[in-house]
């Protein structure tokens, strides 16, 4: 096994190559529930909002600093005042410091001018779906990265994702064709960076397609604050080069958190990965690439379409035999429904049965649903949340019994089984 230590705070992880899974992160020592195993800073961040906001998205679009993505609050205090870009006046920054930093990085004169040209030519892009408008932002951000930080651009190119490795190659190829033609017809081509150029050449449809594939496989979403109805969507996407080595498991043993508004700058957009439960040395550490409450057919479809692989994890092996999978296949093309789908009724019923059995291992003896315990203990019980719970970091030798949800941020006391919403803590506690 080819092993390379990764620079985590305490060297807790190694990068290894695993046949059929590519690079993976494994524990170099036994790891404890709640332990922070990785802090990672983004090499590239871009807004998750469309370039041409609809009435539904326009109120959120100008809510965040275009550099650090903290929520903008109009106030008399200089640290939270709103500073528009002097060139375009469209992009807003939470402080003069963020504005200055952005002008020499993510909002360079080339990005500012290119975004302006796209916005001034509203004949094509507004008709495209939100995803395409966000892809346009990503492509500008990625080409700009080569200008402002060639070494980070090189790192981006080393991440997993080739035009050919996805089942949705056609959609990547179509997006690349459309967006590259649009950008190259309206914007000044970015000058080639001072690094060996990729085999796709510089500023080409092929390179744009490769970059879009890297984004699709590796981008992490930074969440908006929870809205009053408990909904939380993405405010920005980021490429985190170390966190990109985590493979997927439908029963993850670690999950990642972001604290964009509460962490002090300049590292407020860092993500933190914490262990959900104890694992022994040598075990692969995996995240779930989407909320764990997706049902089996949807998980398999998303993993194949978006990430190009079939999942053979323990949970999938069990759920592949569940009888209602065929019915769900009939709905396979209903993408809207897929997005909204929560754990299917079969899972709910099995969870209830496991819960009623009342034993501490939460139905591990039930061969139809051996992972019920995971859902009872580690899935957020808030309506429509679907987040995963991990304990707060241990202090010294003591593990924390406070669990935090990585989606809604809810804190609750770990009563050993969980799942009933009791024991929730307010943030003050
Ligand atoms: C974010 S990358 C993870 C790191 C990647 N293995 C690498 O070599 O860089 C996502 C890609 O890893 C692979 N992958 C992740 N989880 C996997 C799994 N459970 N089984 C097989 N391949 C997996 C897929 O190719 C997927 O598109």
From TrEMBL:
GN (gene name): LOC107417337
Region of interest (Disordered), ranges: 324-366
One Pfam family of this chain: SET
Biased composition (Acidic residues): 324-349
Annotated protein name in UniProt: Histone-lysine N-methyltransferase ASHR2
Occurrences of domain SET (ranges): 11-290
Classification via SUPFAM superfamilies: SET domain (SSF82199)
